[in-house]
Specification:
alpha+beta; 10-stranded mixed sheet; 5-stranded antiparallel sheet; 4 helices; 21 strands; 30% strand; transmembrane; DUF3048_C; DUF3048 domain-containing protein; membrane; DUF3048_N
């Protein structure tokens, strides 16, 4: 009897020990799982916050470049008429100004870094004085197809004028588009023009201030930027993707893609308010490009209210917050949406 009692006690003690061991193991396993989950989250955040350190960065977009000299830039006048869509090459631009050319149609002044060998850019359209003023910020080739009288008068004194009317061999007309929405150029054609005319693509222009992306935990939640260009066909929205820290462009309610299906994305979006007035029966505009005005700057999921400022045609248009500090942009593409008052 005593022996049986001893055996029973031993079994009970063993069972308790086993339960404790199993319970302790389960707790340890739960703890290990939690630690692994925390580690994975930390790795994900570290990758999202990874900063690329460059020895040399480009003045146009803050991205790295190799080689002894900076690649430089070139500018192309790209149209946005409904019959010109989808455009070619615009998703590869480093900087884009969008403004109404004649109501309600918008047009793009696209600035390309010369280290991007863009094979097809367009449709290329005509110049206007305010686009010429913005192009002069860069002292670089400006490709266009004719222009208003006022624009052509300005360009007569501009060294880097690349007008298709007089330089057709650096452009081509596509048989798949109807005129006047069928003129295209490319990096190779513009490089050839620069070589033939003894131009440089380097461009002696001022740089903006650039910074790395904000850490994931420090990014904001301003998810949408809407720009009203008078009609639904030209309505613009930029939607923020927090994980990528990028803005995706929508036009007419749909993702804005180029001719090869590449979605247009930007690291920074600025809305620039300027004075304007209609100057003729055709609807051509006189648009403010110098002085200063209100602006909203979007980056890292946040909005900063402030001002834009530019004193002379040789200076860059710069953006400042409401404390007067110059904006430090994220490295990458920037779009400037120009709104008329």
């Amino acid at each position: 009897m005593k022996k049986e009692k001893y055996i029973l006690q031993s079994v009970l003690v063993g069972a308790v020990v086993l339960l404790v061991a199993v319970g302790g193991g389960f707790v340890c396993w739960q703890k290990w799982q939690a630690e692994q989950a925390a580690l994975q989250e930390k790795i994900k955040q570290t990758l999202a916050e990874k900063i690329v350190v460059c020895e040399k960065i480009k003045k146009i977009d803050g991205l790295c470049y190799d080689g002894e000299s900076e690649p430089g830039v070139y500018a192309v006048m790209i149209e946005n008429h409904s019959e010109a869509r989808p455009q070619s090459g615009i998703a590869d631009a480093s900087l884009v100004y969008e403004a109404i050319v004649e109501a309600p149609i918008t047009r793009f002044l696209a600035i390309f870094s010369a280290d991007r060998k863009v094979e097809k850019i367009g449709p290329v359209r005509s110049a206007r004085p305010f686009y010429v003023d913005w192009a002069k910020e860069f002292g670089a080739p400006y490709a266009h197809v004719g222009g208003s009288d006022a624009a052509l008068k300005q360009l007569a004194a501009y060294k880097y004028d690349l007008n298709e009317f007089f330089n057709g061999k650096y452009f081509w007309r596509s048989s798949t588009r109807t005129p006047p929405h069928n003129v295209y150029t490319s990096f190779d054609f513009i490089s050839r023009a620069a070589a033939d005319m003894a131009w440089t693509l380097a461009g002696d222009f001022e740089t903006w201030l650039f910074k790395p992306d904000a850490a994931l935990a420090e990014r904001g939640d301003v998810e949408s930027i809407k720009v009203d260009f008078l009609t639904p066909a030209y309505a613009v929205e930029w939607r923020y993707e927090k994980d990528q820290n990028e803005y995706v462009r929508l036009q007419s309610g749909h993702a804005h893609v180029d001719s090869v299906g590449k979605i247009i994305r930007a690291k920074n979006v600025a809305v620039m308010h300027v004075k304007s007035k209609v100057i003729d029966d055709y609807g051509r505009l006189d648009v403010q490009t110098l002085g200063n005005g209100a602006a909203e700057i979007f980056l890292d999921g946040k909005m900063f209210s402030g001002k834009w400022r530019r004193n002379t045609l040789n200076e860059r248009t710069r953006f400042f917050n409401d404390r007067g500090d110059e904006i430090r942009f994220n490295a990458g593409a920037t779009w400037i949406e120009v709104k008329y008052e």
